[in-house]
Amino acid sequence: MPDRNVKARRMVADQLAPRGITDTHVLRAMESVPREEFVAPGQREDAYADHPLPIGAGQTISQPYIVAMMLQAAEIAPSDRVLEIGAGSGYAAAVASRIAASVCAVERIGELARAATGVLTRLGYDNVEIRHDDGTRGWPDGGSFDAILVAAAGPDIPAPLLAQLAPGGRLVMPVGPIGAPQRLVRIRRTAQGDQREDMGAVVFVPLIGAAGYADDDAPPR
């Protein structure tokens, strides 16, 4: 079996670069993070495959391209503070942490938050913090963030997240109905006001929480 570095390089060369991922920070970070550490044990062989994989609790880790696309859209700089909503296994937070100064990530499912914290600690990703909470509230005591990424689709962008976006910051989130094509939206905070960009069609799991969809709206696991 090819070693991890070979698989990671192939992922970047075959899945990411041909699809328009050009940010060198993102490409290097995607190559450096051991994706097999963030999937279920039985899925490690397919960790770098071009599709989502189960991580437990009825959730999945997004395919590598989706992670890279959202990170590139967020235009993360090395000095940035990043907030991620929907930490899952912690993989996207780990990749973002190889670019940004610090990453705060919120996960509403306790078992996933605990597992992600354990993996990140074991791997030495000491600039990432995971919190078990309602992600639609953001990180209320964390000040403002230069980039906010939301890995689930809501009916619209939650007001608490907009309130936590720093001047000049970027927020990337899918918006739309459950189980149907949604639109990936980027909000850029400028001196002239928030600029909203449509970045294309996507399909994500629903964003559950006080400022998102109700838990009863989500499809059964």
From TrEMBL:
<keyword id="KW-0963">Cytoplasm</keyword>
<comment type="function">
    <text>Catalyzes the methyl esterification of L-isoaspartyl residues in peptides and proteins that result from spontaneous decomposition of normal L-aspartyl and L-asparaginyl residues. It plays a role in the repair and/or degradation of damaged proteins.</text>
</comment>
<comment type="similarity">
    <text>Belongs to the methyltransferase superfamily. L-isoaspartyl/D-aspartyl protein methyltransferase family.</text>
</comment>
<keyword id="KW-0808">Transferase</keyword>
<dbReference type="GO" id="GO:0030091">
    <property type="term" value="P:protein repair"/>
</dbReference>
<dbReference type="GO" id="GO:0004719">
    <property type="term" value="F:protein-L-isoaspartate (D-aspartate) O-methyltransferase activity"/>
</dbReference>
<dbReference type="InterPro" id="IPR000682">
    <property type="entry name" value="PCMT"/>
</dbReference>
<keyword id="KW-0949">S-adenosyl-L-methionine</keyword>
<dbReference type="Pfam" id="PF01135">
    <property type="entry name" value="PCMT"/>
</dbReference>
<dbReference type="GO" id="GO:0005737">
    <property type="term" value="C:cytoplasm"/>
</dbReference>
<feature type="active site">
    <location>
        <position position="62"/>
    </location>
</feature>
<protein>
    <recommendedName>
        <fullName>Protein-L-isoaspartate O-methyltransferase</fullName>
        <ecNumber>2.1.1.77</ecNumber>
    </recommendedName>
</protein>
<dbReference type="GO" id="GO:0032259">
    <property type="term" value="P:methylation"/>
</dbReference>
<dbReference type="InterPro" id="IPR029063">
    <property type="entry name" value="SAM-dependent_MTases_sf"/>
</dbReference>
<keyword id="KW-0489">Methyltransferase</keyword>
